[in-house]
Amino acid sequence: MRSITLExxxxxxxxxxxxxxxxxxxxxxxxxxxxGQPTVAISTCRGDGGAFIVQ
Length: 55
Known about the structure:
This protein is 18% helix and 56% strand. With 55 residues, it is of the alpha+beta class.
């Protein structure tokens, strides 16, 4: 898992094919792929918020 900025998250979500989104109350998780590579993008709601990507 790699920490990214919210701006980077926005750019990733623009090109990502999202197959499922889960809102767990403290984070929003997007599951899908970028160019066939499985990808999970996470945005947290704690503090100033954080963003993470798993590929």
